[in-house]
Every structure is written in structure tokens, then in C-alpha cells.
Design brief:
- The complex is a heterodimer of chains A (about 260) and B (about 200).
- Chain A has about 260 residues and is of the alpha+beta class.
- Chain A has a domain of about 80 residues: OB fold (Dihydrolipoamide Acetyltransferase, E2P), CATH 2.40.50.140.
- Chain A has 8 helices and 8 strands.
- Chain B has about 200 residues and is of the alpha/beta class.
- Chain B folds into 2 domains: about 40 residues, Helicase, Ruva Protein, domain 3, CATH 1.10.8; about 110 residues, Dna Topoisomerase Vi A Subunit, Chain: A, domain 2.
- The longest helix of chain B is centred in the N-terminal third of the chain and has 17 residues.
- The model of chain B has no long low-confidence stretch (mean pLDDT about 90).
- Chains A and B meet through strand 5, helix 2 and helix 8 of A and helix 6 and helix 7 of B.
Chain lengths: ~260, ~200
């Protein structure tokens, strides 16, 4: 007996592209099936009930039909609306950055429950309390952790020795922290302060609300930003386009909320 | 393997480069053109040749037009105190069809899209400020699409023009005429309730 062609799936839209005259190809992050692509017919037609559920960052339940090629979305019902994110340029840009990061890090068909929970929880937090550096860095680190790319922060990845509470290093190519003695032997390693190491270790064990209680000063925030950025560029083998947009918004100070 | 005569294959290749036309549709269209009367083919060829040669971008509003300035910008009857910002030249026609707007336009030629790397310098945003600083404009109407990118563009413009003494408004969001409330999506219905007006 063949499986039903219809199925329902909860998901967050992380990308969409226009196809044809009125259709959309939508990429969803779902808890059960990970990243899924599906076509929504006539979704770009004015008055389409599908349209509002298919915008990036929409959180909805989708009724789909399985097809030989790409599945078809035939109905959608909004689960939650991130109105605060949608009405603020900085929050919208941060949301788009998270969506682009998830899209770049994940492949279709691999399990997505942890990534989905992390994205949903982070979007809810941004919608509720705005977005700052801690939220972005926490998300980057936790998503890398979820996908198995987390920097190893327990022991030196070069010699295996215990990390001392001194200035160590972080190597993207070796995949984690290197001790002070091995720092010179790792070409791409950058110095990692004790505070940065502690904060990253703490983020890996704390939930987002707890993580936000730590308010790193400017130098520490910059160090965490640079270290994690180097790490994710190494993992993705490219940079994320929306990241430069966030930097630009900061520079131009075109912000409605203080990041 | 089926062989296609080179002239037909050439037309099919050219047609398949158009958005929304795949190789099979392109081949069908190529055979359709082959069977069309010579006069129709001549007319199509002339129209395509004239497309690039006679269409220019208006130096004032950046709409596509056959003459610079365009018919809207050169119309002395238009109300120059209203400036409506749209994403694409094709957005102007539906607004004109309503017959409710008699001001001028400013075409951005896109919307901000951080994940696609489209920033303000890729749009006609820098050209907006000088137009607003002219004494005539009193209201800037943001008619970007009600999408995340469109909203981001509108918010960026609002911040960008904050220093200019001009009223900034945005198109209302709500239920389309003839719609059934039962099937309205939550966001549209929510905005319709939020932005309800006296009756």
C-alpha cells in the first residue's frame, strides 16, 4: 500500500524565490524533516491566502502534497507572527541573518529538530526582547554545536592537554581551542582570551534567556564576533551576505533599537 | 536522438533564457513562430528591436519611458507635493489604474535584500534625497511590496529621510475587496483590525 500523498508539517520559512509568473519555491526548516523545499502555486497572486505564510521567517503549519519532483504546498495556517521583528529594521535584518545562516548550514533530508527549536526559540526571544550581539553570537555557536561543527573548548585540539586559565588560542582549521604552548604551531590560530573561552563554554550550557544575562563589554563582544565569524566562514567556506548588511546598519546608525 | 534544425534551436535557446520559460516551452514557441504568418514575425522582430532602442529611464523618477522626462514627470497637472516610492516600474500601472493618486513617483528598481547582497547602493535610493529636499514635496508615500524585503526597504527609507522635513506615510494593509473573512490569513486580518478606520 502506498503512503498518503498528503502530509502536514510545521515549519519556518528560511528562504523563498519567485518562479514563473505567480509561484514561489519555498525552503522550510521543519522539526521532523529538516530542511524541505516545496512549490506554492499562485502564492504571489494578490489576495492569495498562502502568500503571507510564505514570507521569510513565517512560522506556520503547511499542508503539502508529495510529488515525484518538488512537493506542493496547498494550504498554510500561521502559527505565530513575529510582529515586533517585522516592524523593526534591525530585528528584521537579524532575523534574515539567522535564516540565511541556517539555510547555508543545513542540507535537505537531514534531521532538523534541534536546529528548528533553536531558530524558533531565538526568533521568539528577538520578537520579545529585541536582538543584540549576544543573541547573534549565541545562535551562531549553538547552531554550530547542533550541526556538529562546534569548536572544541574542553582540551587543546593540538596536543590534547588541559587548557589553563591563561590566554590560549582558537584554530578554525583544527576545530577548537589550542593551548598557549601550541599556539605558535597552529598557523591560523588567533589568541583567545580567558573571558571569551568562559563565555563560549557558558553559552554551550545555558539557554538563551540565561545567556543574555552576561553582558560582554565592547572588546570582549568584538573578540567573540571575530572568533566565531572566522569559525563559521571556515565551516561554510564562504561568508554570509546579510552579515555585511548588519555591519552597515551599525555603521550608518540606522537603527530603531539599540543592538 | 531527435535533431532540431539549427535556426529553430537558436530561437529556442534564446527564448529559454527568458524567465519562466523552460527548454520544452521554448521549443514549442519556436515551432509556433515558424508556423506564424511572416507579418506577425516581422512585427515581433521590430517590436523587440525597438524595445532596447526606444526605451529609456526617466532621469527624474527612474521609470522606464519612451521619452525623458516621462509623461508623469512632465505633466504639469500632477500634484508635486506627493511623491510615491515604488519598487519596480511595473508597480506604477496598478496605482495609476486606481485613479486616486495624482502625484509623482520614484522607482527604486528593486528592494533591499540582505541575503541576496542587494544593498542601498544597488537601488535608486541616493537619488531620492535630492528630490525630497526640493520645497515642493510634502508627503512621501512608501508603496513598497508588503513582503519582508519590501518592509525592510520602507523602514530603511523612513530612517534615511528622518532629517528631511517631510511627512512619511505607507500604504495601508488590509483585506482585499471581495475577500472572505473566514479565509483571511492571520497577519492580514490582524493588520486590518489594528489599522481599522472610522466609519
Amino acid at each position: 500500500m502506498s503512503a498518503s500523498r498528503d502530509y502536514q508539517v510545521e515549519g519556518i520559512v528560511i528562504r523563498h524565490v519567485a518562479i514563473g509568473e505567480r509561484d514561489k519555491l519555498v525552503t522550510l526548516l521543519t522539526p521532523d524533516q529538516g530542511k524541505v523545499s516545496a512549490v506554492a502555486k499562485s502564492a504571489r497572486r494578490p489576495g492569495s491566502s498562502l502568500g503571507p505564510c510564505l514570507e521569510t521567517l513565517s512560522h506556520a503549519r503547511f499542508h503539502c502534497i508529495r510529488r515525484r519532483s518538488t512537493d506542493l504546498i496547498v494550504q498554510a495556517q500561521t502559527i505565530s507572527t513575529f510582529t515586533s521583528i517585522m516592524s523593526d529594521l534591525w530585528s528584521t535584518s537579524c532575523g534574515l541573518y539567522l535564516a540565511e545562516f541556517v539555510d547555508a548550514c543545513t542540507v535537505e533530508g537531514s534531521p532538523g529538530s534541534a536546529s528548528y527549536d533553536l531558530l524558533l526559540c531565538t526568533l521568539r526571544e528577538i520578537d520579545h526582547a529585541g536582538c543584540d550581539d549576544v543573541v547573534l553570537r549565541y545562535f551562531e555557536l549553538r547552531l554550530l554545536d547542533t550541526l556538529g561543527f562546534c569548536p572544541s573548548l574542553k582540551r587543546c585540539v593540538h596536543c590534547g592537554g588541559a587548557l589553563q586559565p591563561v590566554e590560549n588560542g582558537l584554530s578554525a582549521s583544527l576545530g577548537g581551542a589550542v593551548c598557549a604552548d601550541c599556539l605558535d604551531h597552529c598557523a591560523d590560530a588567533r589568541t583567545l582570551s580567558v573571558d571569551a573561552l568562559k563565555v563560549m563554554r557558558f553559552w554551550l550550557t545555558a539557554d538563551l534567556a540565561t545567556a543574555r544575562r552576561v553582558k560582554p563589554g565592547d572588546p570582549l563582544a568584538r573578540e567573540l564576533d571575530e572568533q566565531l565569524h572566522r569559525f563559521l566562514v571556515h565551516v561554510l567556506q564562504r561568508d554570509l551576505k546579510s552579515r555585511s548588511w548588519l555591519a552597515r546598519l551599525r555603521t550608518e546608525r540606522l537603527l530603531t533599537t539599540n543592538p | 536522438m531527435a535533431m532540431t534544425v539549427e535556426p529553430i534551436a537558436r530561437v529556442a535557446r534564446a527564448l529559454s533564457s527568458l524567465p519562466g520559460i523552460g527548454p520544452k516551452s521554448a521549443q514549442r514557441l519556436a515551432y509556433h513562430l515558424l508556423n506564424s504568418p511572416d507579418a506577425d514575425i516581422e512585427e515581433l522582430a521590430d517590436a523587440l528591436r525597438a524595445l532596447k532602442g526606444s526605451v529609456v529611464v526617466c532621469s527624474s523618477c527612474f521609470n522606464v519611458t519612451s521619452s525623458d522626462p516621462c509623461s508623469v514627470c512632465s505633466d504639469s497637472q500632477r500634484d508635486r507635493s506627493f511623491l510615491c516610492v515604488v519598487e519596480r516600474p511595473s508597480d506604477i500601472a496598478p496605482i495609476e489604474r486606481t485613479g486616486r493618486f495624482h502625484g509623482l513617483y520614484h522607482v527604486l528598481h528593486g528592494s533591499l535584500s540582505p541575503s541576496k547582497g542587494i544593498g542601498p547602493e544597488d537601488l535608486k535610493l541616493a537619488e531620492l534625497l535630492p528630490r525630497l529636499r526640493s520645497a515642493e514635496v510634502t508627503e512621501l508615500i512608501l508603496a513598497t511590496n508588503p513582503t519582508l524585503e519590501g518592509e525592510a526597504t520602507a523602514m530603511y527609507i523612513r530612517q534615511m529621510v528622518a532629517s528631511v522635513d517631510v511627512k512619511v506615510t505607507k500604504l495601508a494593509r488590509g483585506l482585499p475587496y471581495g475577500a472572505d473573512l473566514e479565509y483571511a490569513d492571520d497577519m492580514t486580518l490582524g493588520q486590518a483590525i489594528e489599522l481599522r478606520q472610522g466609519f
